[in-house]
Amino acid sequence: MVLKEVMHLVDKGEMLPLMEEFYTIQGEGFHKGTAAYFVRIGGCDVGCHWCDVKESWNAETHPPTKISKIVANAANYSDTIVVTGGEPLTWDMKPLTVALKEKGLKTHVETSGAYRLTGVWDWICLSPKKNKLPVGEVYNKADELKVIVYNKHDLIFAEEQAEKVGENCILYLQPEWSVRDKVTPLIVDYVMKNPKWKVSLQTHKYLNIP
Hints:
Layout: H1 3-12, E1 15-25, E2 35-41, E3 64-66, H2 67-75, E4 80-84, H3 94-102, E5 106-111, E6 123-126, H4 138-141, E7 144-149, H5 153-162, E8 170-175, H6 180-193, E9 197-199, H7 203-206
Parallel strand pairs: 2-4, 4-5, 5-6, 6-7, 7-8, 8-9
Antiparallel strand pairs: 1-2, 1-3
Helix pairs in contact: 2-3
């Protein structure tokens, strides 16, 4: 397949820059502790300095892969598919999610919301970032809001973001892993004073699994 044709299929969402895919236990947020198949899509320009998957940023380093192959692999492992990144909404997610739904699979996405919401989703985890805020309808569509806390100022940001989501959106504060010993007590104290929030931990890292 020639490069021009590949890029056309990527632009249409019929091929995606696949970084990795794996079956594991969801470690964060509402569905923590449940089995899921993760599809990590390359490409992200949000640029969080504490990102623990910086190798996902450059989409050109990850091979464009036909969504039919991604779907076939996913269907072998789980009925819940989590699409993450990178920033998956960099690309058109409709073809992938429609194909997953045709297999009877549940579709979850983890996104910063920095790009227009595309795709058919059963669950949307919105994790907004200060340097590239969410756009469009993702605030109203989000099932959970997960704010990463690196310092106390992130709690102010969290409240600003919480005002924009729907009333049924579940609110989470999650310590950034590299400073967890410092910020976890801060989060615990904040949640006890503001019980609309819940604590989210990266339990997969404590379990030493992907």
